[in-house]
Amino acid sequence: MPKSIFSNEKGSVKKVITTRIKEIQDDYLADSTPWVIGYSGGKDSTVVTQLTWMAVEALPKNKRHKEVYIVTTDTMVENPVVATWVENSIDRINQQAESRDLPISAHLIKPALKDRFWVQLLGRGYPSPRRGFRWCTDRLKIRPSTNFIKSRVSKHGSVILLLGVRSSESAARAASIKKHSAKSSGKFKPHNDLKNCFVSSPIEDWSTDDVWQFLHLYPNPWKHSNQELQALYAAGSDDNECPVVVDTSTPSCGSSRFGCWVCTLVTQDKSMSAMIQNDQDKEWMTPLLKIRNELDFKTDTDRQKDRDSREFVRMNGQVSFYKNNDEELDLVRGPYTAKKRAELLIKVLSAEVQIQSQFDKEKQKQIINLIDHEELEEIRRIWIEEKKEIEDTLPEIYEKIKGKSYQGKSYRTASVLDSNNLNLLETLCGDNRREYELVRNMLVQEMNLKSKGIRRGFINELESELNKFLYVEKDEALSAGAERQDLIETIELNAVNDYEGLKV
């Protein structure tokens, strides 16, 4: 149990907080470098934001000389309850800051369209994230915040980033903080990756109980209830308890985890499960939990099922090999097949319909959308333009599930690629889907090049598309891999024999 920064001495909390606020004020007045606060809406970032707000507001108006940017990244797949909480908090921060004439502004930033979760998974066919293929964190969280910070560095020359990290969160976090602190003797540490960005952790020595005690004793200055925040954590804990922290012996609800509802990097989404279990009004999230669990897999059967739903070649048509647990040569699987991507889209849209049907539209101010139209159009574009899936199945899927017409871009195709001819081609190819896709893609590529009226690079473009289908059958690829492996082993053996011969 980490030691509390607050002693049992009467008035200790007020004394410590007064000192911290004075330290923050001194840092604020020391230079003209603006501050950026990484704000998630959780307890730790709320404490940092609240301390900073209290410090700046207590200064004379003429000394509030530099901007404080509060930045929240919306991954677009956040727990809807938490996302709504954060959005409301952002709105109140901006309202209260403006009414009190404070140099504080809150910004809700989102990933670029091409980087969003559903665009990657449903569009390009990326499998659900795993520890060995953690493609989501950089795209959904790091890039948006990094771009924001870079834009402020470009404007101001440098920034100071305030984070709500604490050593007591975990041994890994404590080691990370210690490592970064060792790189600089100053209060502000240089950011590892961002030039002219310096990092401060105002509450790194706080315990979880310290955090809750502060939030309980000091009202939220932008009028977003800390008691409601505590209740949110309570709802996301297994035992539905989040007691008022009165001393170090009192347990805390601070271990609750909030994040993306699709996250498969954790064993299970305990917070969402607890919310559904603890609050009947949150049972509407059950379809989300079901989709998340379907994207995850824990048994060998589930893993094999996931492998079977992915292409045996990578996106560029290349094949990679590895030796499985039985020391047999096997293929590294590529993106999800067109069939699997369509199935997943159906499940997401169906869950969206199910959730929206549970709300009284007259009373519900905000309709919960799991995937927006912009993302659907980008997914559709990828299917048609990048993957050559000219069948254009997305509007049909949407209309069937949503019960209304799909409003999107019009894609014109040559008559040779109309549905009748594609159906005929599919029939002729039988069960061999790769063979069908090869002929279809070559036709699409030829039609696209013909429509441009430019023949330069025609052969190269066709060759590039053809190279994606070097192997039509999985067994072909495995056989080629086995031959290659035998050749490598033969070369290595000969090299060893030659070396041994030289020794003699």
Short description:
With 504 residues, this protein is an alpha/beta fold.
Overall description:
- By secondary structure, this protein is an alpha/beta fold.
- The chain has 18 helices and eight strands.
- The protein has helices at 12-30, 43-57, 80-99, 117-124, 136-156, 171-181, 208-217, 226-235, 270-278, 286-295, 300-308, 338-357, 373-386, 394-402, 419-429, 433-452, 458-467, 474-503; strands spanning 35-38, 68-73, 104-109, 159-162, 189-190, 197-200, 321-323, 329-331.
- The strands form two sheets. A six-stranded mixed β-sheet has the order 3-2-1-4-6-5, sandwiched between helices. A two-stranded antiparallel ribbon has the order 7-8.
- The chain starts with 11 loop residues before the first helix and ends with a helix.
- Residues 170-185 and 239-256 have low confidence and may be disordered.
Beta strand %: 5-15%
Q: Care to count the β-strands?
A: 8
Shape: elongated
Count helical runs: 18
Helix content: 40-55%
Q: What is the topology, as strand order, of the major beta sheet?
A: 3-2-1-4-6-5
Instruction: Note the main sheet.
Output: 6 strands, mixed
What's the gyration radius in Å? 28 Å
CATH architecture of the domain at 12-229: 3-Layer(aba) Sandwich
Please trace the helix and strand order, writing H or E for each element.
HEHEHEHHEHEEHHHHHEEHHHHHHH
